[in-house]
Specification:
With 297 residues, the protein is α/β, with parallel strands linked by helices. It contains eight helices and six strands. Helix 1 crosses helix 8 and helix 2 packs across helix 8. The chain is globular.
C-alpha cells in the first residue's frame, strides 16, 4: 500500500534541520563542514527548496530518503570541483553509488536545468535586471576525453588537435549559463550551434539577439534569422591587431568557459554519456551562480 506523506509530516525544528526531509534520517549523525566545496548555509537554503520532491511525498512509490540531501549535493560539488572518481568519494559522504543514483535521477528529471534557471533569474533580479534575458552569447570549447568515453560520442578537433568532446554553451550578458550541448569534438561550431540555438529559443523566448565569433559566420546567420527569428551578430577579430585583445561581447562567454574549466571534472571528459557531461557543466554553474547570488558579486 502506498503511503502519502505531507509537508506537515516532516516538520522539524530549525536546529535539527539539515534538509527538507531531515526527519527521515534524523537518527544519523550529520557530517562536518570541512571541504571548500561544502555548501554554505545561505547556498543550501536556496538549493534545498529547488530540488524536486521524492516520490514518496506524493504517494507515488519509493521509500523515504535515508540520506541527507545536503550531503548528496556536497558530494556532487566535491566530485565536480576536484575531478575525482565516484568511487573515490571521502568516507564522510554517503556511499558513492547513492550519490551517483541521485545525480542520474535528478538529471533525468531535468532538476539541474530548473535549479539553474531559477538561480540565474534571482541573480539577474538582484542586479536590477529583468529575470529573463533578451540577448545571449555563444561559443564552444573542445576537451580531451578519457578512455571511458566511447568512440560513438567522441571526435577529433583538427584545429585544436583534441580527441574528445566539444561543449557548446550559451550565456546571458552576465556570463550566466543558459544552456549547454555536448557533441563529439569533430563537430563544427556552425553545426553544433543549430541544436544549441534551437534549445535556447525554446528556453528563453525573449532572446532575439545572439553574439558569436567568426566561426559561426555564413549560412548559420540566415538560418537563425529565418528559422528561429534570432539576429545572430558576428563579432570578428581585427586583422590589424596582434596579441591578446578583449573583444566586445565575446569575452563574456570566454570567461564562463574559463569558470567551467576551473572545475577539474570539466577539464577533461570522463562521462560515458554526453548528457552526464552536460550535467557536470550545469552543476558547476549551479555552484558558481548560488555563490554569486549570496555574495551579491
Amino acid at each position: 500500500m502506498l503511503v502519502c506523506y505531507t509537508h506537515a509530516d516532516i516538520a522539524i525544528s530549525e536546529a535539527q534541520r539539515c534538509c527538507r526531509f531531515a526527519p527521515f534520517h534524523a537518527g544519523k549523525p550529520q557530517r562536518g563542514r570541512r571541504y571548500p566545496t561544502d555548501t554554505t548555509e545561505a547556498q543550501w537554503a536556496v538549493i534545498d527548496a529547488l530540488l524536486p520532491d521524492p516520490g514518496f511525498i506524493n504517494g507515488v512509490g519509493g521509500r523515504p530518503e535515508s540520506h541527507c540531501r545536503r550531503a548528496i549535493v556536497d558530494a556532487i560539488f566535491y566530485v565536480v570541483d576536484n575531478g575525482i572518481k565516484w568511487r573515490a568519494l571521502p568516507a564522510d559522504f554517503p556511499p558513492f553509488s547513492t550519490v551517483f543514483k541521485y545525480f542520474t535521477r535528478w538529471e533525468a528529471a531535468s532538476a539541474t536545468k530548473a535549479i539553474l534557471s531559477t538561480l540565474r533569474a534571482r541573480v539577474r533580479l538582484a542586479t536590477d535586471r529583468q529575470a529573463e534575458p533578451t540577448a545571449a552569447v555563444i561559443d564552444s570549447a573542445s576537451v580531451r576525453a578519457a578512455e571511458t568515453v566511447g568512440a560513438a560520442s567522441r571526435g577529433y578537433d583538427a584545429g585544436k588537435k583534441v580527441n574528445g568532446r566539444k561543449r557548446h554553451i550559451a550565456v546571458d550578458t552576465m556570463g550566466l549559463l543558459l544552456c549547454v550541448l555536448v557533441t563529439g569534438a569533430g563537430t563544427q561550431d556552425r553545426d553544433g550551434a543549430k541544436p544549441l540555438l534551437t534549445v535556447l529559443n525554446g528556453l528563453c523566448q525573449r532572446i532575439n539577439l545572439v553574439w558569436a565569433d567568426g566561426g559561426y559566420a555564413g549560412k548559420l546567420v540566415i538560418w537563425a534569422r529565418e528559422t528561429l527569428g534570432l539576429a545572430l551578430t558576428i563579432v570578428k577579430r581585427s586583422d590589424d591587431t596582434t596579441g591578446f585583445h578583449v573583444l566586445p561581447r565575446r569575452w563574456v562567454v570566454e570567461r564562463t568557459l574559463a569558470w567551467i574549466a576551473r572545475h577539474r571534472r570539466c577539464v577533461r571528459d570522463y562521462e560515458r554519456l554526453p548528457e552526464h557531461h552536460e550535467a557536470m557543466v550545469r552543476w558547476t554553474m549551479i555552484r558558481i551562480t548560488s555563490k554569486r547570488l549570496n555574495n551579491k558579486v
